[in-house]
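Hi all, long-time lurker, first post. I run a small reading group and we've been trying to get comfortable going from sequence to structure in the token notation. Rather than ask abstract questions, I figured I'd post a concrete chain and ask someone more experienced to write out its structure so we can walk through it together at our next meeting. Sequence below, copied exactly:
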Amino acid sequence: MIEKKVIGKKINELSVGDSDSFTKTITDSDVRAFGEVSGDMNPAHFDNEYASKTIFKKRIAHGMLCASLFSTILGTKLPGYGTIYLSQEVKFLAPVYLNDKLTATATVKEILEKNRVIMETITVNQDGVIVIKGSAVVMPPR
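-- Answer (accepted) --
Happy to help. Here is the structure in token form:
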């Protein structure tokens, strides 16, 4: 049974600059589970020998696994429960390796009409390197 949560912020409760983050270490089991769920079994994610011959020199996490951390923020933190995720633009700027600690942040960039909000979305690794940058459009709860 899913625990009932308090509905997130409504559009009139948001301000440009509001921000929240989520931090997660990307593990081998995360990569394996994402591969099973998504069907993306690219050897760059699973085969050490194969990955050693790529430009990355070792296994990398799926870009979309890492980008999915934005969903955690948008759906549970800011705006929060009840938010509808309408679109996401992402640019993958650097590889994410197994055991990298990622911090994804979503910041209110613009409040639009028709109950829409543009969020800036950025993920950095444990060294402060931006690995993903983009923007999302969400519909906060009414």
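A couple of things your group might point at:
The mean pLDDT is 96.
The chain is about 25% helix and 35% strand.
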